[in-house]
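To close the section, here is one more complete example, presented without commentary so you can practise reading it yourself. The ligand is magnesium ion.
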Amino acid sequence: MGRAERPVRAVLLDLDDTLVDHAGAARAAVLAFVRHHGRDGDPEQHVERWRALTDEWYPRYQRREVTLDEHRRARVRAFLDASGLTDAEADDRFADYQRSYRSQWRAFDDAAPLLRRLRDAGLPTGVLTNGEQGIQTEKLRRTGLLDLVDVVAASSGLPAAKPDPRAFGATAALLGVAVEDALMVGDSWENDVRGALEAGAAAVLLDRRAARTGTVRDGVDVVRSLDDVAAGTQPRTPAPSRISRTPNSANSAAAP
Ligand SMILES: [Mg+2]
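Output:
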């Protein structure tokens, strides 16, 4: 039986910018951070610069080229143009940012309703997120979503981060299903969709800025809201060879 004929037996969901508004929280935290540190200039440029530094360093941490602390210090030193900061000073400044970031966590309005629908449909759910297990679990708890999911799989506790197929296989295994029986829902083409398809799972792309639900990108269904992810729906499942590797800058890796 080909993937297209297999029923979905479990749903994997990305966390940042899929269930929880990471970008909004990070933006608010950067604005508070630059106010606190008296940085001049266009606030939006600061937000963009922080995002660019995150995009530069967070994947390196996910590939385990640098440690969590090293990548945080690098982001802070570059952002503040302060290469001379000691490790302790850089850690203090990152902690300032992170306190503010955590205080801004909000679930999207369509997150809890989807998780309830999936539970009502009898489909086990797993959050599959590139991040720290403790932080991501706390994020789900504080936004009221933790009790609505069955498994939280963060890359810090997985054999590899998304888009590595091992991340999808390990999370499906935690839910007791074959990866080919899982559907991945996420906002990143590279990490969520391409990774899932290469692992053998089905995928749906969440693009909250899409004109409408029902469009198809490279053979993959696109939804503009989690309200449009129907429990039990059979998504399209193109062959992985058809999936482009076009990076989507709007869907960059999320980081604390
Ligand atoms: Mg995401």
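Once you have examined the tokens, check your reading against these statements. The radius of gyration is 18 Å. Residues 3-21+106-245 form a domain with the Rossmann fold fold (CATH 3.40.50.1000).
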